[in-house]
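All the exercises in this workshop are built on plain-text protein records. Sequence and backbone structure share a record, each on its own labelled line. The question running through the whole workshop is how a given chain folds. The record below serves as our worked example for the rest of this section.
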Amino acid sequence: MRLAECKALFESIAPAGFYVALRLGFMSPEEEINTFRPEWIDFYTARGLALHDPLMRWIYSNCGTARWSALTTDDPLEVMTAYSDYGMRYGAVVCVSSDEARPRRTFGYFSRADRELSQSELNELDARLRSLHFHTTQQEEPLTKAQTEALRLLSQGMRLREIAHALDISESAVKARLKSAMARMDARTPAQAATIASKRGLLR
């Protein structure tokens, strides 16, 4: 299962917007998807609210599911009030963590304007995030040798012309390899595809 394949389900449960981050490590997730309104994203980013968001603080000390209304985390900047002001009056936070020396977390914020999320919806979100989190590269079809070569060189900072020269192929062939690798990694850009593949250990 891939993150993009869950978008329709997440949108049906959280029509006011959601954010999901897949296997967050030290700095950034392997993949993410954000359907919050642009005006909320701008407001949230400009004020640096991620550092003060009770939802983000919750995911670093909890696993499982919780409705926003049940959170007891301090909120001196009234971030949760701001969510409500932007039409996200109800919601849930879900977090899954790996049991390893340096745990990675998959988490999501899901919001509605009309009602609390039901227990069955919370269960569905938890199950989907668990499936995504523990879906290992061994379960996936590997990148082709051609895709791997192109992404590896791209990750080393090479430009299309340099990659084409190194592989003794045309630039259009390089673009085709990168495009197919983007589709395989559910990435928006070749650079993102290279980053995801590297984090999954596919470029070794």
The chain has a mean pLDDT of 90. The chain has nine helices and five strands. The beta strands are 17-24, 31-34, 64-67, 90-97, 105-112.
